[in-house]
Amino acid sequence: MLTHADFFAGLGVFSWVLHGNYIDRNLPKGVYRNMLRQIDLCSGVGAGFPLAATIINGFKLRGLCERDEFCCDRLRDRFPGISIYPDVKELWIEPNYADLITASPPCPPFSLEGKRLGNQDPRDCIPAVLRIVRRSQPKFFCLENVPGLLSAPINPGNEPGSYFQQMLRELYTSGYDAEWVVVGTQQFETLWRGERLLLVATSRCVVEKFSGLPTTWEYQIRGASEETGHSPEKRSVQSRVAGTTVRTPDRLDIPPGTKSGNRINRARRAALGNILDPRIAQIALQRVLYLNSLCKQ
């Protein structure tokens, strides 16, 4: 099993994609009693929200959803005993099955580096994700994507930003208040260059139970950034273009002696290219834990 120290040393995330698991079967009985039950959608190899949730605790993973065969094999190895659903567009989750739904939908429909087809892109999974949220009514919903989602049109030729506006409307009519931030990835010592959009939506049924006004998310993120020892110099070299690939040394993820054109190697590269660094995912999950702590018992 990959230790937290190994992971934060740098290359641990790549090692985790290929080896190790993160489900501890030796936890004491009753430890999950007060944890938020989590379902993760568009999971990839599980190195984003699922891995982040195991690092910071406070969550019980109940299910994953991923259609890619290579990624599903990795999920079965890393999260033994956890249900894996094959297609988010056909998934139904009953109400009260999960307290938290997290999702990392494909970003090509919105990326500044792509055609930005929005709803016309067959890879667009956000409508399916929102349908699941609306039906299952979790306490919280987290989504991550490229910042290009903020300015993407619903369809080519539509008003810039219309996709995100429609998404917010759907969340509101489903009973959720949303907040979002764009985070520079190198600000948190990650191996990814660029920025990521993080969104946390809270059920208004939960908001009504708050014992006081929440601290702003930006304030919390600033504190987390300072804890990493972030310096202004690192901010100045940060890419302003939303990155969708992992910047790694050539062949870093390939076992020695393996041909670069191997099918498994191509699958590995694709999986690594779509990974959300768990340190970035933790920013959203820490916000969820904080908001949940405000609820009157």
Features:
seven-stranded mixed sheet, Rossmann fold, 34% helix, alpha/beta
Q: CATH topology, what is it called?
A: Rossmann fold
What's the number of extended β-strand segments? Answer: 7
Secondary-structure element string = HHEHEHEEHEHEEHHHHH
Largest sheet: 7 strands, mixed
The level 1 CATH classification is Alpha Beta
Overall structural domain count: 1
Calculate the terminal CA-CA distance, rounded to whole Å: 36 Å
CATH architecture designation: 3-Layer(aba) Sandwich
The strands making up the biggest β-sheet line up spatially as 3-2-1-4-5-7-6
**Average pLDDT metric:** 78
Total helical segments? 11
Percentage of residues assigned to helices: 25-40%
Shape: globular
Cα-based radius of gyration, to the nearest Å: 19 Å
Question: Which range does the strand content fall in?
Answer: 5-15%
The CATH H-level superfamily is Vaccinia Virus protein VP39
* Derived structural class: alpha/beta
What does this structure look like?
- The chain is an alpha/beta fold and 297 residues long.
- It has helices at 4-8, 12-18, 49-56, 69-78, 126-136, 162-173, 204-207, 217-227, 232-236, 263-273, 278-293; strands at 36-41, 59-65, 83-85, 100-103, 140-145, 176-184, 195-203.
- Strands 3-2-1-4-5-7-6 form a seven-stranded mixed sheet, sandwiched between helices.
- Strand 1, helix 3 (49-56) and strand 2 form a beta-alpha-beta unit.
- The longest helix is centred in the last third of the chain and has 16 residues, at 278-293.
